[in-house]
Structures are given as C-alpha cells and as structure tokens.
TrEMBL record:
The keyword Cytoplasm applies. This is Histidine--tRNA ligase. The gene is hisS. Its main location: cytoplasm. One of its GO terms (biological process) is histidyl-tRNA aminoacylation. Homodimer.
Amino acid sequence: MTNDPTRPEARAPRGFNDRRARDLTAERQILAKVSEVYERYGFEAFDTGALEYADALGKFLPDADRPNEGVFALQDDDEQWMALRYDLTAPLARFVAQNWETLPKPFRRYAFGTVWRNEKPGPGRFREFTQCDADTVGSSRPEADAEIIAMAADGLTAAGLPAGAYVIKINNRKLLNGLLATAGVTTEGQKLAVLRAVDKLDRLGPDGVRLLLGEGRKDESGAFTKGAGLGTAAAEAVLAFTAAGAEGRSETLDRIANVIGGSPEGGEGLEELSRIDKALIGMGVAQDRAMFDPSIVRGLEYYTGPVFEAELLLATNDENGAPVRFGSVGGGGRYDDLVARFTGERTPATGFSFGVSRLASALRAAGRDLGGQARGPVVVIAFSPDDMAAYYGVVGELRAAGIAAEVYLGSSGMRPQMKYADRRMSPAAIMLGGDEIAAGTVTIKDLDLGRELSAGVTENAAWREQRPGQQTIPRAELIPALRRILDASK
C-alpha cells in the first residue's frame, strides 16, 4: 500500500478509548446493579447536559486567557464559554442553585454519565470516562454522610466486590484542621500544603511526607517540591495523627482524641465521626467494610468535613499476570461550600463517586470480570440468495422468542461463515439448505460444545455425551433445542 497524503491516518486521540462489547457489557452491568441499590436507598435518578458554562465549573474554571485549561471548551454564538463537564458534582451544584425553591429538601440524587478532562493522559488516566455519583444536598446531619457510605458499600458489593474485597476509609477534615490550629497553623495556603503532603502518604511513606511537611522534598529526578513549612513538633504531631488508626472505629476515635488535643474544631470532627459510627452500626456496616483512617484526606480542596475513600483489597494482576495495585476505586465527602458559589449561602452537601471504567478494570484484574467474553447471536448460514426469505423467517422466529440472531450478510462460503460465527462467540449456527427447507427441518451446529472440546474441558462429561455437536430436527423443535444449548452454557 502506498502512502497517500490526501488520506487521513486512522488514529484515536490520546486519552480516548474505543470499547467493544466486553467492556460495555461490564460497565452496563455495574451501572444496573449499582442503580438498583441507590434507588433502594431512595435516591432519584438524575442527569444534566454534557456542556456547562465554563464559569460554573468552580475549581476547574479556566483562566481567562486559557479557556481550554483543564477542560474542553468552546465559545457559543453569544461569546460565552461553554465546557464539557469535568465531573458530575459541579453540574449538580448549578442545578440545585437554579431550582432550590422547587426541590424536595434534602435533594437526594444519583447520576452516571461521561465526563471529559483536558489533561495529560497516561496509564489508567483517560480524558473521557464514565462516572457514577450519589449525593445528598441540604442535610448537615452526619447521618447523611453515614448513609452515603453505607450505600457506597452496598453498591460496590452489588457490582461484584464482596465483603473483604474492599474497605471504605473515613476521616474528617475538621480533625486535622483542629490539630493544625493547636499547632499555630492558621493560613489556608499552609493548611492546603499539609493536606497535599498527607495525601501522598501511601506513595512516599512517613519519611517523604515528613520532608513535605517541613521545608520540602527533592525527588529522584532532582526536582524540588516546596514543603508546608511546619516546625518539627507540628510535623511530628501530624504524622502521629495519621498513624492513629486502630482495628475498631470507636478505638480509632479514642486514639485520635488523644492526639489532637482539645481544639473546638477537632472536637466537632470527633462528634461527627461518632455519629457516623452509630449510624453505620445501625445499618449493619461492620469495620471490615468501613473503617476510620486518619491518613485519608482526599485531594480536592472543596471538602469541608468527613471524607471517604474506597480501597480495593483484592489481589489484582495485569494482562501479563504481573501484580498491579489499583488502590482507590472511588471516594467522596462533605462539600458544604460548593452551591454557595452560585447563591452566596452555604448549602450542606455530601456525596460519593466512582469511575465505572476503573471499577470494571479492577474487577477484571481481580478475575471478576462482569462482561466476560461477550456472546454473539445465533448465526443463520446463508447458502443461497434465493432462500433469504426462509433465513429471515428463522431469525424473526428466534428474535420473537428473545434469542439474539442474525443472517450472515457477507459474500463468503460456508466455511468462512462458520469461522465468522465462531469469532462472534455465537452459541450455535443454523444451517437451512434446500433439502432442510423442503423437508421442514433445520440443522443446528453447537458451537459452544465445539469450543469446550477444543479447550479440553472435561467437566460434565456425561452431559456432553448426550449433547450432539450437530443435529437435524423438525423446524417446530428449533426454539427448545436452542434454549438447551444456551442454558447449558450459562
């Protein structure tokens, strides 16, 4: 083939993935199972448009001179900048501010949909992906946080992560704020620097975070990151706080209380976690599914109280069988200031979010792929163009019975058609030649059985001996015969 400069190169933009049936089936199953849980908790399904005005995106508002910074933006015909939604929370805040007077309060909603981020793509980091969120807006009760946590846990279980496969780790920003106030840290900039340092604990360890809490840290490449500027005593107090976790939630609260001292904000944070603990106990959420962990701070700056992060505990491997660590598969917390950007009035809110594609990838890496190998339809082999009406009579009958089916519409002979059906992972192929049409019969080839035999599967030997690889039967027996093949492969 010669290069033709007038032909575009077939390529996908970086960070945008093509997904076939296996991936889509897994994601759809996750969303269906999680949606059922969220609705059982009384949360309303909700969606917003893909585009928002750029100034509604809050923390991710583009600079005036760089409207595409962080988001994909375009200018409307009225010269206002619009951007593809970066997450599902900023559109919720905008909607609540617009419709607060008419909404039931609290407003409880869940949503899933595509979000876009104009960031540098990398392994496991995409510019387009599906998120699933659940939020309660309008309740300041810690029990609202507890319910989000319990619902997130039940949703992850429904998605395929049983107890012991994950844990939701919970903390409260007010605890660390109280500790820092006691240590004399009062500026927001220094507080954020401490939060960012603690957020790197799992990657850098206590020694690396100790440097970032102090003057700064130089990484292996020689690049220097300026630290939070805490003194030695304050830095050690922060590290002691992050290490105060215990086996039980109530024991962790006792240890935290001993570390943070008697600051009013810290005491408020302890009281909130205590109420969350009691609500979780009432909902039957045990320590192995939700635990208090003072090292969890979450990276986003808008969290104002409790924060939580869902961590995968299953052993996972990449496509080559090498161990890989997924870590967090979702998170959230309380963000009481987000709606106030529009209204000027503080509106309490709390929520949880997870990346659907990331969770599907984690399940697959742990050997719990919901999508599996996507099944194809039953394929009717096309022998002659003169008999197409008969072929379509068969597929019409199968489809009416709820069985996916298609007539082969290529131009190849029988052997390539059988190969096509095998590549589609079809359960069976139907052969309807002139003799079968005249006799009122149909021939079925069991492709699932053929795949089992070629793979050396030895289970169910007795059933296989009674299961014909190919059979010619009366046309009236077609549906029951196909159902036996489909049921045997479930």
